[in-house]
Design brief:
This is Circularly permuted type 2 ATP-grasp protein. This protein is of the alpha+beta class and about 850 residues long. The protein contains 29 helices and 23 strands. α10 (about 315-320) links the parallel β11 (about 290) and β12 (about 325).
């Protein structure tokens, strides 16, 4: 039961507020109500943290989770419901190092046994032939895939990365609730938890000498890379993800970024001549090892599941031909089925000649007559689960069923006994959880991780602990709202302080090359559009700020009509702009203008509104998160929070909150762009981002200048200052031309100045330089990209500004034609870049020659 209420802020030791439930094993207190030995030092240190400091740390933790974008996608009816912010309890779970060493040895036996089972199932099938495995357990299992028979070579295991869900019995002994290999998720969240704990409780971690996770991370990456079938010193490893809608996409991104692997979706990969390749901006690049975060059946629509849209056709055969290693092996999910737990003790005795050292939760498969009878007779105290998870049968807890529901369930078991198994309901061990400045009890389970190394299985000195929402709730799932804990391994250990070093590949300096073409096409696409959305958001903010300034500062109605060129940037193209003018076109219709401003600011259903554009920035950035620095992501979160704070509020153009939103958004965008420019390595990814920005900015400038100068009064001394302020070029103009406002001077500064980052000429010059560094240009290939870019650059470079000012200013004049050609060619340039680098419908001749497929 929860501890009795007490005023912990006045307690000498708030850790004393905890009361452990009776009859269950508690991780903190022993049966005498005293802290366990490995908790002593931590309890002493924690007791010194006062309530104010503890709450500060909680606030810091929440901010860090938000800043780092740590999320878990929640699903309902197979549809993404929302991104849920990750939840971590500030109080860690302490485990004794000697106990972890013992657990490592016992779990090593278990995963070795599972490997032997998979080797038999996808090999000689002696279990099936001898009658040791019922045919239904094999052939009825949707995770058994006949095309995977014989895929794994003898020098590799089926399982390289293993995790197990554990809890303790009342006597403190560990019990395995389930084995996880398909895929073994949670590692990324465990590492993220440690990162958060290091920031919030650094002194406590140092005082406790908490075991480092880095040696395990090194062993993990070394194990993955050693799988390369070509035994290269620097294999190409890709992490296969279902994509941003997957519930654990953050983890995929986090692991790829921290391990240095390329994050790939199925559409990024292709199989040619039985070899897996990544589609990159320079062509296709061979993949040696695939670390998958996609279930086996979805990996290959050609051989495993034909309706999969997230796999790669031909992937299975690439493995079969020895050209690719996949971790864990395709089909390894066979050993995850609940019913298999009932047979593991027998398998252990017959495969290993020894007892299973760490027991599973007691399980009875109803496909055997005596076991079925036992389950039915004891249905009141068992959980009834499907033999296979994908069967469409839901798990049910006997104690929660009515008499009628039990009778109905018994009838279904009798009708299809092989489809059900009974499982003991384990009352999970309890842990202390921080509820404000007091401790309460919750049921928990622990997910631990092991990796195969040359020296045997190595267990991470930590893990992912999760606990229930209430003391009476026995369901512990992340999707159901369970909260996590960082796991600290403390005390003396044979691994303590040993930092495993990665072997150094002896490569001659002359052979080292910086590859500029390994960027996946999808990543290039995302970065290109991230650049465009960023620039679009900044432009929209500047335009709206200019409109607000016109309404606020220009009191004369006839002067307010200078808002029209700015309005043309935010209203739909099919809307007649003349409708914003009244009194024969001499004054501005302010009511309609205010409505348009609010629409362009806050309407989430308008894809061009500021709030929608910033959402597009965040959505696109999340797809390329592995290529953004942590500081850059923090700036993005700050920018998003500014717009999110305005939701569900009534707005007026003249509210102080409106101008503050615009100014704060502009500041946040500038900080985000500044971080991108300062913290992004000048690789091809950065170039695509910059190309996207420059195309978008050039188009915006051309559109704005066309709207401002075509069909308008000459040398408008009210419009030009507003235009210069929008382009952030007022100071440049005044230094050069003082306060004499003319069209020719304005065009010189905003259109033809190669030194002004806000000028059209600057964008054209930057595009020319950036495009010259793309693979097609480096390899000397002719491409429509170059021809179109040259037209943009030449148009600006050869522009005769005097002809612009002398010529007619109406539609169809030289100035109008100039801007229209620029706008058209920029659109073509974007299309040519997309078709060249983001499509890959056919390999280029150069690419095939480089790969040497023959």
């Amino acid at each position: 039961m929860p501890p009795p209420s007490r005023n912990n802020s006045t307690s000498k030791n708030w850790m004393d507020s905890y009361v452990a439930p009776s009859g269950e094993y508690d991780e903190y207190l022993d049966t005498n109500g005293k802290p366990r030995p490995h908790w002593d030092a931590a309890a002493s240190q924690l007791s010194k943290i006062d309530e104010g400091s503890w709450q500060q740390r909680h606030q810091q933790l929440d901010e860090l989770i938000k800043e780092n974008g740590i999320t878990y996608n929640v699903y309902q009816d197979n549809q993404a419901e929302h991104q849920r912010q990750w939840s971590l309890d500030l109080l860690p779970l302490m485990l004794d190092a000697k106990e972890i060493e013992d657990l490592e040895e016992r779990l090593s036996q278990r995963v070795h046994l599972l490997n032997l089972v998979l080797e038999d199932v996808y090999g000689r099938q002696t279990l099936l032939r001898s009658g040791g495995m019922h045919p239904y357990i094999l052939y009825g299992n949707p995770s058994f895939h006949p095309p995977c028979h014989g895929l794994v070579s003898h020098r590799h295991k089926h399982i390289q990365i293993y995790s197990a869900d554990l809890t303790r019995g009342p006597d403190g002994s560990w019990i395995v609730l389930g084995d996880r290999v398909e895929p073994a998720s949670g590692l990324g969240y465990a590492l993220a938890n440690r990162m958060l704990a290091t920031r919030t409780l650094p002194k406590l971690m140092q005082a406790m000498e908490v075991a480092s996770l880095q040696p395990f991370v090194n062993a993990f990456s070394r194990a993955v890379e050693s799988l390369s079938p070509f035994r290269s010193d620097n294999p190409n490893v890709a992490l296969l993800t279902p994509g941003p809608t997957d519930e654990t996409y953050f983890e995929h991104n986090f692991l790829a970024r921290n391990l240095g692997y390329t994050l790939a979706e199925g559409a990024d990969l292709t199989v040619r001549n039985n070899q897996l390749y990544m589609k990159t901006i320079g062509g296709v690049q061979r993949v040696d090892v695939l670390l998958r975060r996609v279930n086996s059946q979805f990996c290959d629509p050609l051989e495993l599941r034909s309706d999969s849209l997230i796999g790669v056709p031909g992937l299975t055969n690439a493995v079969r031909q020895g050209n690719l290693s996949v971790s864990n092996s395709l089909g390894s999910g066979f050993v995850q089925t609940s019913s298999l737990l009932a047979f593991l003790p027998w398998f252990s005795r017959n495969f290993l000649g020894e007892s299973l050292e760490i027991p599973s939760v007691a399980t009875w498969w109803c496909g055997q007559e005596s076991e079925k009878k036992f389950v039915i007779d004891n249905i009141d105290r068992l959980a009834i689960k499907p033999t296979f998870w994908a069967s469409g049968i839901n798990s049910q807890f006997g104690p929660n069923l009515t008499t009628a529901e039990k009778q109905d369930l018994i009838a279904r078991i009798n009708h299809r006994p092989e489809a059900y198994c009974g499982q003991e309901i384990v009352s999970a061990s309890t842990i202390p959880v921080a509820d404000g400045y007091k401790l309460v009890s919750r049921h928990s389970k622990l997910r631990v991780f092991l990796v195969a190394t040359e020296d045997g299985w190595k267990m991470m000195p930590g893990g992912l602990a999760r606990y229930s929402k209430s003391v009476t709730d026995l369901s512990i799932t992340t999707a159901g709202g369970g909260t996590s804990k960082d796991v600290w391994v403390v005390g003396k250990s044979k691994h303590k302080g040993v930092q495993e070093k990665r072997p150094v590949a002896h490569v001659s300096v002359s052979s080292l090359q910086k590859s500029q073409s390994e960027l996946p096409s999808r990543s290039a696409d995302n970065l290109f559009w991230l650049g465009r959305y960023i620039e679009r958001a900044e432009s929209r903010t500047r335009v709206l700020h200019s409109l607000w300034t016109i309404l606020a500062e220009e009191s004369a109605p006839e002067n307010q009509k200078v808002a029209i060129p700015f309005l043309e940037q935010i209203v739909p193209s099919n809307q007649n702009i003349s409708g914003f003018l009244s009194h024969k076109g001499t004054t501005l219709n302010t009511a309609k203008t205010e409505e348009a401003i609010l629409e362009a600011l806050f309407n989430e259903n308008n894809s061009d509104s500021l709030i929608s554009t910033i959402a597009s920035v965040e959505r696109t950035a999340s797809k390329a998160k592995e290529r953004l620095s942590t500081d850059t992501w923090k700036r993005l979160v700050a920018m998003r929070d500014i717009t999110q704070a305005t939701k569900n509020q009534d707005h007026s153009v003249y509210d102080n909150a409106t101008i503050e939103l615009l100014e704060h958004s502009l500041e946040a965008l500038s900080a985000f762009i500044g971080n991108l420019m300062e913290n992004t390595t000048r690789t091809q990814g950065w170039r695509f981002l910059e190309i996207g920005r420059r195309i978008e900015r050039a188009g915006v400038i051309a559109n704005m200048l066309q709207s401002s100068f075509i069909g308008r009064e000459k040398d408008d001394e009210i419009l030009i200052p507003k235009l210069l302020a929008w382009a952030d070029s007022a100071m440049t103009y005044r230094r050069r031309y003082l306060n004499t406002y003319t069209d020719i001077n304005t065009l010189d500064v905003i259109c033809l100045d190669y030194d002004n980052p806000r000028a059209l000429a600057f964008q054209a010059q930057q595009l020319k330089n950036l495009l010259a560094e793309l693979p097609h240009a480096i390899n000397g290939e002719r491409n429509p990209i170059d021809q179109t870019a040259l037209r943009v650059f030449s148009s600006v470079a050869l522009a005769d500004i005097s002809a612009f000012t002398i010529d007619s200013r109406g539609e169809g004049g030289k100035l109008d034609t100039f801007f229209q050609e620029i706008i058209t060619n920029l659109g073509l340039l974007g299309s040519h870049i997309e078709s060249t680098y983001f499509a890959h419908t056919q390999p280029q001749v150069r690419q095939s020659a480089q790969i040497n497929l023959g």
